[in-house]
Amino acid sequence: MDSVNLHYGRPGLLARVDATLRSLGKDPLQLTPDDLAPLDQFHIGGKMATLAIAKASGIQPGDKVLDVGGGLGGPARMLARETGCRVTVLDLTQEFCEVGRELTARCGLHEKVDFVQGDALAMPFESSSFDVIWSQHSSMNIPGKPKLYSEIARVLKPGGKYVMHEVFAGSKQPVLYPAPWAARQDYSFMIPSEESRSLLASAGLHEIQWQDTTETGAEWFLARLRAQQATDANFLGINLILGEIFQPAFGNMLKNLQEGRTRIVEAVLVKD
Asked: What is the pTM of this model?
């Protein structure tokens, strides 16, 4: 998975974030999850999607939550602040884990959110460790969905929930690249949503909610793209992560949604 690390892990991310925050009049050492949301909530729907899905899933104070592919920890910090749960972020990219820890400390949430660098196909956790597994726009970078779902089921407690907000392959192919999650197809691992549903059921994870949100997601993404095009080039966002491929990746993301090449699903599943 070196390609994934190269895609997301460009050195110097924290310095770029700090410089941008200062240019926007923010103190990089005194932050809130809301200050960082344009950067670390780079899934479709942003922080409002995180909050809405958290409410629908019923995460409770004291729940142990695992965010699989949680990146810089934006959703994790928001969940910890809003629900009082404890979140562990598992991510393959070392740069994300290191920067995520620092940003979490600056938000005063280091006692609620921690980071583990590791592989979602071989999770470094004991079985039945978590009340909730969470993933937002991360499975596209993870090959071997049967193994991913079996690992999720393994570390989830009986009766626990898997909360998912993911991008799937649409009926029209191929997907256009570069995209925000991959510059090339060779490290993008999307499957159709119906295939995912079958694999999840085989892993012992059963639906209590499954909603295709592609149309509303495309509308949100279009509005986000227009807002960024209208602002100064110096803004806090995924541009600081993607660098020179940011503009074509964002354009292709919108085309993929509008043309049915990708679909967005929000789901909550429960383990037997």
From this structure: 0.96
